[in-house]
Amino acid sequence: MNTLKAEKRSMSIKAKRLRREGYVTGNVFGRDIQESIPVKIEKTVVERLLKTCNKGSQILLDVDGQAYDVLIKDISFNAMKGIVEEIDFQALVRGEKVHSVAEVILVNHDKVMNGVLQQQLQEISYKALPEALIDKVRIDVGDMKVGDTIRVADLDIAKNKNVDLPGKGGRRLRGGPPHLPQQRRNRQRGQKRRLLRRNRGMAGLRRVGTSCSYALFL
Asked: What is the rounded CA–CA span in Å between residue 155 and residue 150?
């Protein structure tokens, strides 16, 4: 299990200032913690942790020498600046189930030669005891063909008796036909709209000869 070192944060110092000084702010909360504990963590340490861990990972959090078995509950990422600004941790309690998520990771997707994979689910929500937590679900899609479907119910996580899923079946990963480029789709939509507008001004249509051409008649 990964260990992350943090320090208690003084609320008199604003989060923006701490971020400028190279820290990521966060909070630790849980059933056995009366008030959430505000913390600060060195940015470089957080970046190193997130190379192997993510939202839903279980780690050991060391806050000024006090160790907490925690779940990474939420990660606030500033996409404009490309940095992590805040991380929230839930302290785990032995024998108590907790809500979490497992990241869906596709394996061998480069071997899919026909069609385009349509991934409708990025993470799987579930509930489990601390010892049964799962942070990643890897799916081998190398043998998928057009029309194949993989549902959450087909995965090992759904067969794990120690994991509670919110529903059966649910979202799916599907092998579908190749997508048209966006520019081509827009062009086709425009052609359809123009055809509809033109047809509204016609009194009628009749077929000319054996071809599929049409002529306007009044």
From this structure: 8
Contact 176, 146 (CB under 8 A): yes
CA dist., res. 84 & res. 23, Å (int): 10
Two tokens at 69?
């078995």
Nearest-angstrom CA–CA distance, 180 and 186 = 10
pTM more than 0.90: no
Domain ranges in the chain?
Answer: 3-93, 99-176, 191-216
Which residue intervals of 137-216 are DSSP H helices? 156-159, 182-200
Q: Classify burial at 5, counting beta carbons within 10 Å of its beta carbon; exposed 0-12, middle 13-18, buried 19 or more.
A: middle
Q: How many CB atoms lie within 10 A of CB 133?
A: 19
Q: Give the total residue count for the chain.
A: 218
Which CATH number is associated with domain 3-93? 2.40.240.10
Place of tokens 């249509």: 205
Query: Per residue of the chain (218 residues), what is the pLDDT tens digit?
Result: 899 999 999 999 999 999 999 999 999 999 989 889 999 999 999 999 999 999 999 999 999 999 999 999 999 999 998 899 999 999 999 999 999 999 999 998 888 777 777 888 899 999 999 999 999 999 998 888 888 888 888 899 999 999 999 864 444 444 444 343 444 444 544 544 444 344 333 333 222 333 332 222 22
Query: Across-strand partners of 71?
Result: 58, 90
- What CATH code would you report for 99-176? 2.170.120.20
Contact 147, 182 (CB under 8 A): no
